Amino acid sequence: MKFGWPQELEFMRNARATQRRCTLRCDGKLCIITGATSGVGEAAAWKFASGGAHLVLVCRNMEKAGRLKQALMDAYHVQVDVVQADFTDLESVRSAAAAILDAYERIDILIHNIGTFRKKISFTAAHFETVFCVNHLSPFLLNSLLLERVMASAPARILYVNSEGHRFSTVHPDDLEWKHHRYSGLKSYGASKSAQLLTITKFAELASSSGVTVNAMHPGAVRSNIGNENSAWYRWYASHVLNLFLKEPEISAEALYYLALSPELSHTTGQFFNQTIAETPAPHALDRAAGEHVWRTSRLLARMSAEGAYGVS
């Protein structure tokens, strides 16, 4: 008898499965990658540069971004630009979006890779819980501001680097400061990734008739610098223990490349992938009523206008 995996354990089977690859080139396509100076983002920058993409790296650390830019241009002779943005600051994200819209007439591929993990609760200067702001609210704002340009560039694709960690917790849109729920690093991270998935569904619907697809992916169990803002003990543990069980981020870059370019996904939208394999997310990430609540709350927090589906006043 063939073993049947319960739906909630599909991610374990999919993690072991042979992943798909795409060998097409992307010469001249404008590809924006956030959080591109380390881990999955850096590996993705190298992969898309090898395919000939015109890269726009959205990064906080301009010194690191400058070094990466030069290395990519030296290796592949592609155009690489850098836009600065601090994803703990929504005004910085607005400025980055304005710079992108001013500089580029089209956006072919938009990859939201930025992410953080905090074991202890912390808040931004505007008093947003840091993980929620960096992982969800800032990417939500950036995507909203760029969506019209992406739609005008269709066919185009938007990808979010999400996580199986969304299964750790649903989002509590009426308690984003964790005053009435016990905070933990895993729950906070899970809530932010759940918020991402809940709003990706709406973005996919908004772009559905334009030729733009919006999907999310779990990057696999790979090494990254996520969590480096935590204590020295956590950083040592991650480096000397956790990393022993993790793979190189190049596997994530290959998955992103496939999701961004494979012809067989040209009409696939609103989906969650475990690397390159379509997968059903946790039930709470499929709750449409919760999704509408998170969507409205996110727009309110990001101070977006009530008019229009996704734009700002």
Q: Averaged pLDDT, please?
A: 87
**CA-CA gap between termini:** 59 Å
Low-pLDDT windows of residues: 1-5, 230-246
Q: What is the helix content?
A: 40-55%
Strand count, sense and barrel status of the largest sheet are: 8 strands, mixed
Placed side by side, the strands forming the largest sheet appear as 3-2-1-4-5-6-7-8
Order of helices and strands: HEHEHEHEHEHEHHEEH
What assembly state would you assign to the polypeptide chains in this entry? single chain
Shape: globular
The radius of gyration is 18 Å
Residue fraction in strands:
5-15%
What keyword list fits this structure?
disordered N terminus, 8-stranded mixed sheet, 313 residues, 12% strand, 9 helices, 8 strands
Structural account:
This protein is 41% helix and 12% strand. β7 and β8 form a beta hairpin. The protein has nine helices and eight strands. It is α/β, with parallel strands linked by helices. Strands 3-2-1-4-5-6-7-8 form an eight-stranded mixed beta sheet, sandwiched between helices.
Write the layout of secondary structure elements.
Elements: H1 10-16, E1 30-34, H2 39-50, E2 54-59, H3 62-76, E3 80-84, H4 90-103, E4 109-112, H5 130-152, E5 156-161, H6 185-207, E6 212-218, H7 232-240, H8 250-261, E7 272-274, E8 277-279, H9 288-301
Parallel strand pairs: 1-2, 1-4, 2-3, 4-5, 5-6, 6-7
Antiparallel strand pairs: 7-8
Helix pairs in contact: 2-3, 2-8, 4-5, 5-6, 6-9
